[in-house]
Amino acid sequence: ERLLRKEMELEERERELALQTKRLKNQGPKPYNFPPLWPVMYHNIDEEITDSNRVLVRNIFRSWLFTLGTLLLNSTSCFLILIAHAVGVNTGATDFGVGLVYTIFVGMASFFLWYRPVYNAFMKEKALYYYLFFVFNGFHIGFQFYMLAGIPGSGSGGLINMISMISDGKILAGVFCIITSALWACGGTLSLFLYNKVYSHYKLQGHTFNEAKS
Hints:
By secondary structure, the chain is mainly α. Helices cover 79% and strands 0% of the residues.
């Protein structure tokens, strides 16, 4: 009975995907709409993702937006570390510079290396896109917990830098570092949860590594 139920669910998803693909082909090329200020691609979860997967993909998109917000706040925290001149902390300039680089590079790289692949994976149901997501989102999760640590000179306003700021009475920098640390922790946990959701869907669809290689 359990196997029969899974087969029925798989058949239903295949029908949804076939209808979605047919509708997209009939619509023809679409005008670029993302990002809003400088469109370079078409992005529409409601139109391009099947009903059964729409909530998950939308949550993954929100997790990417959450990453952007965390990177921006992290850069602000690093700037406050720089101007705080806490005793024993001489890596403020490095933290701020690296934090800015992360904001630009990680923000763009995360979109093209793991968000767009998983978007395409759910849109086209091709194993290769899932593997791209698993690899690069795995690195991204590791990066989030690395940033949580807040090692001086790493470009992070995480835990270690937070302790240094609070210990020296730099309240404003300390508060921003507390918030930044919380966001890195929440972001990493959310990413792990969504990663597991995508992997469960991947297994349910019966994709394999050999399929990805071909």
